C-alpha cells in the first residue's frame, strides 16, 4: 500500500533529523510492514536533512524551506527493498529482556570508527556476516517449503525438536541452529575487533545455555547488540517447559521473558467508525 511507503519514508527522515545521523531503518520498516526481509535505503537520500541545519535559524522562511526540502526527500527514489517473510510453522520468536542495558549510540560509533579506519578488513567481515544471514534466510525458506510439500514429515521432525537438546544434526531444523552458530561467530569477531560489546561474554554464556534446553534452535543478541536482550527461536510446544526450566537456573536470574509474537501485517488501514462507542 502506498501510504505505508510514505509513512516509512517520512518517519525515517524525521528520525535522521532528530538523531543527526542515518540508521538502518529496519525498526521502522518492520513496524510498518511486519515480518520482512529488508534491504536498507542509501543513506545519501536523507543526509542533507540534518546536514543543512534548517532549524538553527527559526524563521518562517527557513521553516518553509525545511518543509519543501523534506517533501522533496520523501518524493525522491529511496531504493529500499522488502519482501514478506515468516517463521516456519510451529516455531516462535521468544525475547528475553535483561536487567541492565547498553547505550546503542556508543556501540554504533565504535563500529563506524573501526569501519572507517579498516575498510578492507571490515568489508571482508561484513561480507561473511551478510552471507551467513542469507544462508539463515534460506534455511527458514527450506523448512517452509518442506511444510508445504510434506506436512507429515515436517510435523515428525518438529515433534522431535520439541524434546531435543541440542538439536540433532539429522533434523532438518538443525540448519537454523548451524546458521545461528555462524552468525554469532562473526558477531563475536566484530565485538573483538571494534571493542563494541555486540555479543559480550555474558551474553555468549546465556545464549549457549539456551541451546542446552529442549526445543531451542538458538538465538542472537538483537539490534545493535549489548546487554539489553536476547532473542531465540523455539518450538512453540516447548516454550512453557523452556520458561519453567529457566526459572530454576541461576544463569537466567536477570532475564524476563516477554510475551510477544511475530506480526506479519504491520500497519493496516481501518475504518474509525468501527471504534465508535
UniProtKB/TrEMBL annotation:
Pathway assignment: Isoprenoid biosynthesis; isopentenyl diphosphate biosynthesis via mevalonate pathway
Keywords carried by this UniProt record: ATP-binding, Kinase, Nucleotide-binding, Transferase
MF GO annotations: ATP binding; phosphomevalonate kinase activity
A GO CC annotation given for this chain: peroxisome
One GO term (biological process): ergosterol biosynthetic process
Transmembrane segments: none
Keyword flag Nuclease: no
Residues making up the signal peptide according to the UniProt record: none
4Fe-4S is among the record's keywords: no
Gene3D superfamilies the UniProt entry points to: 3.30.230.10, GHMP kinase, C-terminal domain
InterPro entries, alphabetized: GHMP_kinase_C_sf, Phosphomevalonate_kinase, Ribsml_uS5_D2-typ_fold_subgr
Descriptive protein name: Uncharacterized protein
Organism: Meyerozyma guilliermondii (strain ATCC 6260 / CBS 566 / DSM 6381 / JCM 1539 / NBRC 10279 / NRRL Y-324)
Organism classification: Eukaryota, Fungi, Dikarya, Ascomycota, Saccharomycotina
